[in-house]
Every structure is written in C-alpha cells, then in structure tokens.
Design a protein that fits this description.
Among the domains are: about 190 residues, Aldehyde oxidase/xanthine dehydrogenase, a/b hammerhead (Aldehyde Oxidoreductase, domain 3, Alpha-Beta Complex); about 160 residues, Aldehyde oxidase/xanthine dehydrogenase, molybdopterin binding domain (Aldehyde Oxidoreductase, domain 4), CATH 3.30.365.10; about 140 residues, Aldehyde oxidase/xanthine dehydrogenase, molybdopterin binding domain (Aldehyde Oxidoreductase, domain 4), CATH 3.30.365. β14 and β15 form a beta hairpin. A 7-stranded mixed beta sheet has the order 3-5-1-12-9-10-11, sandwiched between helices. Strands 18-19-28-29-32 form a 5-stranded mixed beta sheet, with helices on both faces. The termini are far apart. α10 runs parallel beside α18, α13 packs parallel to α14 and α17 crosses α18. It is built from 20 helices and 32 strands. It is about 25% helix and about 25% strand. The chain is an alpha+beta fold. The model has no long low-confidence stretch (mean pLDDT about 95). The chain binds dioxothiomolybdenum(VI) ion (MOS). The site of dioxothiomolybdenum(VI) ion has 11 residues, from loops.
Length: about 750
C-alpha cells in the first residue's frame, strides 16, 4: 500500500510494528539470551514464614556434577549493607527486602540459597539437595487477625496521593440521611501471572561491564538499583528489556532474581542466568488483600448526602506499600460530605505490589457496588443514579477536569448494550434455566504524564529512528512511538525504527500507571519539532536556500522534504540538507514534563462506563459473562487497534478478578497455597464471550501535548463491579467478597430462596 503522508497514522488502527518479530519467535526475552560459558542459577526457596536460618548444608548439592557454587547469606560477594541502598524508584517507604542478606526469614518462599551450575538441570537437581534448618517464630499472615491494629501510613509513598481531607461532616450527614447503605467489601490477594516468568541473564562483557537482560518494566530503575547495591558505575551496567511477556505491575520494582543473577556473576566472574519458576512467582508480587467499608447516605431521590469509605489493606512488616483505594469515591460523585480513610495492617508476607490499576480495582469495586445497592434502595436506575450524582469537578482537590466525557460513556455504552430494555427487578429476566442479569458500573483512572526524554535521528537514507528508555510491556509502545515519529516527519511507518527497553537510551520512567503513551509520544513530538528546527538551520545555510527566511513554525517535514506549510512547492530535500552539511545523520532530543501550571488548577482522569450481561445457571450457580460493553473516555486514541486490545485485556483480567482469581493462604504455614496455574484460576478462552469496546470522543487540550490519556489500566477498573452488579440483578444475591464463586452464590439465601 502506498503511503499518503497527508493522512496521519495517529487515530488509525495500526498493527503492531513488533508483531512479526513476536509471532516468528524473533523477539527475544530475558531468559533467551546466551553467553559463552553461561552459568545457571536455581533459587532455593525458604520453607517457613518467619524466623531464622540456623544452618545450610550444601555438601550434597556440591557433589552434583556441574555444580559450581551455592550462594547463601554466609557465602556470597559483598554488597551494600544499608537497606537504603536497596531502595528503588517505585518502592514504598520502609526497608526493602535484601535477598541472601542474613539469617532472617521474613516471608514464606523467601530465597535462602542460589545453586549455580553449568546447566539448568544440574542447578535444579542440586537445589533439591540443599538442606536448610530453621528456628521458627510465630507468624501472622491473616489480615483478618491484624485488621484491628491498622494504622495510617506514617510516610507517604511517592506519587501515591493520600486520601483527601474530609469535606463537610460525613458522620453527621450519614446519621441524618433518610436512606442509608453501609456494607463491607472484600478483595482477596491476587497474583499477576504474566506469561513470561521473571528471569535475568547477566552477560559479562570483555571490558568488565555487565549487560543485563532482565524481565522488568523499567530498565533504568533496575540499572540504578544494581549500581547502588554493588557499587558499580552506570556506564558499566546496561539493562535491556526489549520485550516483555506481560507485566501488569509485577515488573515495576526489581525482582529478586535480578539481584541474585548479578550477585552470582560478581561472585564467580561468569555470565549467569536466573529464571524463577511459576511457583516462586507466587511468593511475592501480588495485589494486597483489602477489607473496605462504604457508607452512603442519600435523599429518597438518590442524591448523595454522605460518602464514607474506609479501607484496610495488607502490607509486609518491612515496607508500607500504599495505593489509592478510597479517593475514587470522593472523585466520582458530587457530595458535600465525604470522609475517605485508608490504613494498612502488617502481615508476615512479602510486600504487596502494584497490580494493574492498583487501588482503583479495589476501591472502585466497593464504591460501585455500594452505588448499585443504593440504586435498588431508592428505586432509581443505576445509570440515572450516577448522572444525578455526577461530579462536574474534582471535589477531592477542588479542581476542574482537563476533560471528562463520562456522560458520553454512559450514553453510548447504554445504547450499544440496549440498557433501556432492562427490566429493573432482580430475577426478572431469564432464558430457560439461566437467570439473566444486567449490571453496570463506572471506571476511573489517573491520566498522568511523567518526565520522559526521547531522541529522534534522521538518517541520510531517509529513515527516522525514535528512541527512549521506556518499555513495551505488551501494550503497543513500539507501535505508537513509530506512529508519532512517522506523522511528525510524514514518513511511511516502514521508514521509522524504534529503540526502547534499554537503560542506555534517553531517560524514561518505568512503564506503568498508563502514562507511557502520553509521556513517550509527547517527548517524541517535541524531539521531532527540535529536529525540524535544526534541519531548518542547516537548510538556511544552503546556497540559494528557498527556506532562507522561513520561521520554524512555518515549516513542515514530510516525504523526506522540508517545506513551507503554505507553499509546499517551496522546500528542500532532507537528504540534500544532510549532504551539504556533511552529515550522515542528525539527532535532536525532546523532553516531556507535566505542565505544573495546568496541574495547579486541573485534574486529569480517564473514565469509563461498563455494561455487563451475566447468565447464571439457576441450579448450579455457575456465572457466565455473556456480554460486556466498555465505553471509555481516554482523550485522543493514538492507535485504535492496540488501544482496543488494552481494554479487552483489562476486561478479561477484571473477569478473572470478579469470578475466579484468589490466592489462598494456609495461615498455619503462612504460605500461599494455590501457587500454580492449575489451582490459581484465571479466565481461559472459553470464559470469554462478547466484549465490545467503545472510545467516545474526548478532546483534551490541557492534559498534555497530544491530548492522550492512556489506556493500560482503565479497562479493568469498575468492570468487576459491573459483573457483581449483574450477578445481583440476575439472582438477587449480593456477593460483596470477590471472587464470586459458585459456593458463595449457593450459600446465599437470596440465591436459593426461589424454587
Ligand atoms: Mo502498572 S500496575 O503501573 O504496571
């Protein structure tokens, strides 16, 4: 297909530029890199939840042919000893876990030794022969047992907004309210479970430097972490994460195999790979359990008079992991009286981690379930109730929204779904032995821009390279970066090369928080503008240059030429500019930063309205999600194809959270029990029926350079509540504790009441 440079890529459904590499196996992941004499490390996981290691006997392990060494806290290279040195950019306040540091056991499955061998098989076989003795101490892993000792986090986690100051008097207003809903909602521990398990390959280069292929969402975060712990300079440590088989937040912080692989490499002066097993991935990096109470006071009309939302979330003894759980309630709804509180309680596990839309998945499930309960209390349609209480401004922070097309989400979503044909009574819709339920909810997530740099380079052969240290965690970053570069220079996509996932590239934050597209593409746009300006400087210097008097704002780059916007015939070939300047290439940098002036007066969020149909087997209590319409307002959509994929993925993950996912603990052992994909249930293809994604039109001039808000997380937010609300509509049973499993439905008197 010939490229028409007058038709921009941005806004056009575009296939992934990295797609062919991925489907042909050409894309390499962290554990797939080889090196001469590569050693393999296998982690020995601790057996108790709390206590001390009294001895580690490695003698049998060392007899296995091929075993080179067994690293333990008593036998390893020296590393930094202050926990401060183990802090990473994403880590919460506290003392980060230091693997193989001392004899202390802080959670079940903690790494206690690393067997290093010439082959993976030898290291695994020998790991089974390492004998570790412990002195156990009493542990508590049950949030229920410690929720009474919850506390307000003493130090704030950077980037995580604390609950807003209370407004009005929510206690009095609730007591005085003619209509009240007060309920407790629970979400259990969930694990991320990306397809690609954690792995790191450390390659020792000739010059003594380390090239580290790592499964991470942030190469520069992990580079800084390793340099700090091992006392290495950044020019000696390069972290590469060109491809990632899913992250969902699990790769925001450095995972312990990274540390262990570098430790082994430094101890033995060899290249080393350490890959974790699926079981080991279940020992850390999870969504915290939460216990939430929502109290809504309202007029008989449904107008809210009081919102109280209190959450207690689990964290480890060593770090205060924090998320934004309760703020959403005060943000979504117009209400004079709001009191939102968030506390933590410590258990003997590893620190929880961010998991796709951290906090919002939890808090929005609670508030959107409670709003549904209120809708039935007052007999108002759930959509109408939300419109009645619609927040036109951010009452948490007393700011305007940069844009908020949530009303369009309600309207377009409801129309597509056929919401007007809903019969409001629970258990009033059925198809044979299946009860049909229609439920809806709102979703919300922050639209953030993070300080990000990009470099663009135009080459003599007419190609453009765009580069930034950001990651593509499967979200489509390669593609949107290429599209932005292509549009700025009016080039076909094939002429744009993307470099990302490498700590040596221009500075970018971890890919997370749904900020990568807005931040990276804004930086590329600025870099392209700077490059065009530089090209113009050179063009002016040409003999008889037609652009001699042109101003940068009057000039565009397109089809390999630089010309006057208003007189396209007047211009110069970029090749000629480079040639006459005796350049093979020309580079420029751009840096996107949040606009602090806008931030003073405005808040920026993405919104969604989710409509769901469930079908529930009347006898068996089996819930099937038959249809979901997710209508999203996320500003400008760069690539409708990968954007839709993000929402589909979010919806599927929400379906897992609502109906299937739960990590159980054996509190006697203090251990997660269902640590494999056979017993930790996630949706499979057969669970997924009809998912319809709508992007409503949302023009946003303020949020950033491009008006882009980000999409990685919004698809999961609120979708769990929409499913739970549909289950209530189908069955009359309100399940406030996720996941909604058959046992909970069957146990519910409302479900079994009918003949
Ligand atoms: Mo996301 S949980 O910020 O990867």
């Amino acid at each position: 297909m010939t490229h028409d440079s007058n038709v921009p890529y941005i806004g056009r459904a575009t296939s992934r530029v990295d797609g062919p590499l991925k489907v042909t196996g050409g894309a390499k992941y962290a554990a797939e890199y080889a090196a001469p004499g590569l050693l393999h490390g296998y982690v020995v996981s601790g057996a108790i939840a709390k206590g001390r290691i009294t001895s580690i006997d490695v003698s049998d392990a060392m007899t296995v042919p091929g075993v080179v060494d067994v690293l333990t806290h008593e036998h390893r290279a020296r590393t930094a000893w202050l926990s401060y040195n183990y802090q990473d950019m994403i880590g919460p306040p506290g003392k980060p876990f230091r693997p193989l540091y001392d004899d202390k056991i802080q959670y079940s499955g903690q790494p206690v030794a690393l067997v290093v061998a010439e082959s993976f098989e030898a290291s695994r076989a020998a790991a089974a022969l390492v004998r570790v003795s412990y002195k156990s101490e009493e542990h508590i892993t049950d949030l229920e047992a410690v929720k009474g000792q919850s506390y307000v986090p003493p130090k704030r986690r950077s980037g995580i907004a604390p609950p807003p100051k209370p407004r009005g008097d929510a206690d009095d207003a609730f007591d005085a309210a003619p209509v009240k809903v007060k309920q407790q909602y629970r979400v259990p521990v969930e694990h991320h479970n990306p397809m690609e398990p954690f792995a790191t390959t450390v390659v020792r280069e000739q010059d003594g430097g380390l090239t580290i292929y790592d499964k991470t969402q942030g190469s520069q975060n992990n580079q800084a972490y390793i340099c700090s712990i091992f006392g290495l300079s950044k020019d000696k440590v390069r972290v590469v994460n060109a491809f990632m088989g899913g992250g969902f937040g699990s790769g925001l912080r450095p995972a312990y195999q990274l540390y262990l692989a570098v430790l082994a490499s430094q101890t033995l002066e060899r290249s080393v790979r350490v890959a974790l097993t699926r079981d080991q991935m279940f020992t850390f990096s999870y969504r915290p359990e939460t216990i939430q109470t929502v109290s809504l006071g309202a007029e008989p009309s449904g107008k809210l008079t009081a919102i109280r939302h209190h959450a207690v979330a689990g964290t480890s003894h060593f770090e205060d992991h924090q998320e934004v759980v309760v703020n959403w309630s005060g943000l979504l709804y117009d209400c004079k009286n709001a009191k939102l509180t968030y506390e933590l309680a410590k258990i003997d596990t590893h620190t929880p981690a961010d998991m796709r839309a951290p906090g919002a998945v939890l808090g929005v499930f609670a508030i959107e379930s409670a709003m549904d309960e209120l809708a039935y209390e007052v007999g108002v349609d759930p959509v109408e109730l939300r419109l009645l209480n619609y927040a036109e401004k951010d009452e948490n922070d007393d700011k305007e929204f940069t844009s908020k097309a949530l009303k369009a989400c309600f309207k377009e979503g409801a129309e597509r779904f056929g919401w007007s044909r809903r019969s409001p009574e629970p258990r009033s819709m059925r198809d044979g032995r299946e009860l049909i339920g229609w439920g809806m909810a709102t979703g919300v997530w922050e639209a953030q821009l993070m300080d990000t740099q990009a470099r663009v380079t135009i080459h003599l052969d007419g190609t453009l390279e765009v580069a930034s240290a950001t990651s593509d965690i499967g979200t489509g970053t390669y593609t949107v970066m290429a599209m932005t570069g292509a549009d700025m220079f009016g080039l076909p996509l094939e002429k744009v090369r993307v470099k990302l996932g490498d700590s040596s590239l221009p500075t970018a934050p971890v890919e997370g928080g749904s900020w990568a597209a807005a931040s990276t593409c804004s930086a590329i746009k600025l870099a392209c503008q700077a490059l065009t300006k530089d090209l113009l400087e050179h063009a002016r210097a040409l003999a008889d240059s037609p652009l001699k008097r042109a101003r940068p704002e009057d000039v565009v780059a397109r089809d390999g030429r630089l010309f006057l916007r208003d007189a396209p015939g007047t211009g110069v070939a970029i090749q000629d500019i480079l040639r006459s300047a005796k350049l093979d290439e020309l580079s420029a940098k751009g840096e996107a930063k949040p606009d602090s002036k806008v931030q003073k007066t405005h808040s920026s969020y993405t919104h969604s309205a989710i409509f769901c149909e469930v079908r529930v087997d009347e006898q068996l209590g089996v819930v099937r999600v038959a249809r979901i319409v997710n209508a999203v307002a996320a500003g400008k959509i760069i690539n409708p194809k990968t954007a839709r994929s993000q929402i589909l993925g979010g919806v599927v993950m929400a379906l897992g959270s609502a109906l299937e996912e739960e990590t159980f603990s054996d509190h006697a052992l203090g251990r997660f029990m269902n640590h494999n994909l056979a017993e930790y249930h996630m949706p499979v293809h057969a669970d997924i029926k009809d998912i319809d994604v709508i992007f409503v039109d949302e023009q946003d001039e303020l949020t950033n350079e491009l008006g882009v808000k980000g999409l990685g997380e919004i698809g999961i937010v609120g979708t769990g509540a929409a499913i739970a609300n549909a289950v209530f509509h189908a069955t009359g049973a309100r399940i406030r504790s996720l996941p909604i499993t058959v046992d909970k439905l069957i146990d519910s008197p409302a479900f079994t009441a009918e003949p």
